[in-house]
Design a protein that fits this description.
This protein is α+β, with helices and mostly antiparallel strands. The chain contains 17 helices and 7 strands. Helix 4 (56-69) runs antiparallel to helix 5 (74-90). The model has no long low-confidence stretch (mean pLDDT 93).
């Protein structure tokens, strides 16, 4: 049986408390309280954690709240009164502290403990307060920072200049799960993965946005996970239909990586595309918005989606044409309409650039290279194979599987399937 999220959080908070990580424990108890406000144990535990942090007023307030929830539970009342007594004494309310200890004894508490507490000076407790980092520290040379945005919660912003092909981020997923469209099937594996996290990792997970209702862990995972899993830093990179960065999974290092697609100035937000290739560059704004609502439960307000009037019509027209060109590349008769394949590839790449979309040109270059190799136009095949390879290196890294495969054909276009099938035609069109 799967434990409720609040109980999972409480158990991790208890681990932090026992380890002396009172700041983390307090924050986790707060999350548990938000999920189950009627459970007195969570607020009682937070009161104790606040006492260890010498947050006297907060501890007293927690004890007040606990007493409202524990009227028929003498043992819980005892704990609340005892903890409030210490908070009141630390705040200089000796009379209130004495009354709380008397009430503690009246409800079955031990007189010896009450007498010892009356003599105890809470001001001798050392403040154990410490800063908790909810966003893992980035490599100082990475050149980005996470901060609040105007419309999209938190986002990642460049702190130095990036150029196309520069590596921005390498991050291993916190955890990854098989994709499932059935939320009932997701609760068990997500909860099991969460229980394996450390308390600070759980606290970092809970700092992420959830766009859905229901089980908080499942909803955070649905909102923030990428195909390779959930990454705490990468999840802060917001979406744009005109992305300046691209994420991909690098299998050898088991890491998600993000590369710059364009030149990026310091202060500029770093955005990736949550949709893949033709689902973004080949879709109109209306089509994209439907996908965002269905898959991510948000509406996109990026520069492309914020266009109006003639500019929006032109953008939609470019994207419709780009999708049609790509769909048609393999439908042309390779012998009778040879030149159209290369011309359409050139046109498709130029449309992407006119749109300001600087990814996925290799979708067109790959077909152009293979087609030129089919017609024994080795000079053109070499040009397009190198174009394809350079694009993949910039967007995925030279050591990525996509780039390694592309290099095989860049080095020798004759390795394309069906290469050398025809001869006699040349295709000089270039981007």
């Amino acid at each position: 049986m799967v434990s409720p999220p609040a109980e999972i959080i409480k158990r991790q908070a208890n681990k932090s408390f026992k380890a002396g990580d009172y700041q983390v424990a307090t924050a986790l108890y707060s999350h548990a309280m938000r999920l189950d406000a009627d459970n007195p144990l969570y607020v009682l535990n937070r009161a104790m954690s606040n006492l260890r942090l010498t947050n006297w007023q907060d501890a007293g307030n927690d004890a007040d709240q606990a007493l409202k929830l524990t009227r028929n539970d003498p043992e819980a009342e005892q704990k609340a009164l005892f903890r409030r007594a210490r908070a009141r004494k630390a705040l200089g309310n000796e009379t209130g502290a004495r009354k709380d200890l008397e009430a503690y004894v009246a409800r079955g508490g031990q007189q010896e403990l009450a007498d010892a507490e009356a003599l105890f000076d809470p001001l001798t407790i050392t403040n154990s307060n410490a800063t908790v980092t909810l966003i893992p520290a980035a490599n100082t040379s990475a050149g980005y920072k996470v901060k609040d945005t105007a419309l999209m919660g938190k986002g990642a912003f460049a702190t130095r200049a990036f150029h196309r092909g520069d590596l921005i981020l390498t991050e291993k997923p916190l955890f990854a799960l098989p994709e499932s469209n059935d939320l009932r099937e997701s609760v068990l594996p997500v909860s099991a993965a969460v229980e394996r996290l450390s308390p600070i990792e759980l606290l970092q997970l809970l700092s992420l946005h959830a766009s859905y209702d229901g089980n908080v862990f499942v909803n955070i995972y649905r909102t923030n996970s990428m195909p390779c899993g959930l990454c705490l830093i990468a999840s802060r990179f917001n979406h744009s239909c005109l992305p300046n960065a691209r994420y991909s999974f690098h299998a050898p290092s088991k890491s998600l990586r993000i590369f710059a697609l364009t030149d990026i100035a310091p202060g500029e937000e770093l955005c990736v595309s949550y949709l893949s290739s033709r689902n973004v560059y080949g879709s109109t704004r209306a089509q994209r918005q439907r996908r965002f609502l269905t898959s991510f439960n948000f509406s996109c307000g990026c520069p492309a989606c914020s266009l109006t009037g003639a500019e929006l019509e032109a953008s939609d027209a470019r994207r419709r044409e780009g999708a049609a060109l790509w769909d048609g590349l393999t439908k042309h008769d390779p012998r009778l309409h040879g030149g159209r394949v290369v011309r359409d590839a050139v046109r498709g790449i130029r449309l992407l650039r006119e749109e300001g979309y600087m990814a996925d040109a290799d979708d067109f270059a790959l077909d152009a290279a293979a087609f030129c190799a089919m017609h024994s136009d080795w000079e053109s095949a070499k040009y397009w194979a190198k174009f394809n390879y350079d694009t993949k290196c910039a967007e995925f890294g030279k050591d990525h599987e996509h780039a390694r495969k592309a290099k095989v054909y860049c080095d020798d276009p004759r390795r394309y399937a069906q290469s050398g099938m025809y001869s006699g035609q040349k295709f000089p069109a270039r981007v």
